[in-house]
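hey all, quick one before standup. I had two proteins in the batch that finished overnight and I want to keep them in one place so we stop losing track of which output belongs to which input. First protein below, input sequence then structure tokens straight from the run.
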Amino acid sequence: MRVHIEICRAIMALMCVSATTVALAQDDAGRAGTTTASSALPPAADASDKSAKAAARALTKRVARVLSRTRGLDSSRVLVRVRDGIVTLSGVVPDSGQATLAVSAAQQVPGVRAVRNRLRVNTQSG
């Protein structure tokens, strides 16, 4: 009976140490700028999430480059965001024609599935 109690105490001590270690690891991950939720993901899910983010960043750069090179378009105040191949254009353009031009140019970029137009037209001059 005495051995059984000692074994239970040892198991409880190991559980406390284990819980403390996990809590400290999560706290360290939080300080390093990572979220504990992503740390809980299996490595394959984390890797696919990273590759999806990298693909979105690359598509964002391609769309922004196309917009900056589009004649007749002032893209200096246009923000490009991408998620799952869907491009969202937001910001301000001088007139509605430029908003249409920006959407059209973004649609031509390979990898773009759809374009959401959230551009605002600047009604103030000067």
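OK second protein, same deal, sequence then tokens:
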Amino acid sequence: MTEHDVHPAGRTDRAADRAADRAADRAVDRAADRADEVGPPPGAGVPQVSAEPLDPEAGLATAEYAIATIAAVGFAGLLIVVLQSDTVRGLLEGIVGQALTV
């Protein structure tokens, strides 16, 4: 054994490692004991049951948003096609040109 193998408190590195392991084990045991004392929160693991019947219209708002979004995407696609046509492009350039010359 060399002088580098001795812990400052006089123990070897292996003895220090074992002591650290025991201290860590005790800390884990204490934490587990505290968790057992506290227990799970009230109602944990118990399914929530409602006495009211399910609403037959539940989820309709989400479906309406989905349909409106699809319609908006379709309208945006149509608008892009129309705005890229030569006729509409000429009209828009004329309007912008008149606005800049005033």
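Flagging for whoever picks this up: The mean pLDDT is 78. The radius of gyration is 37 Å.
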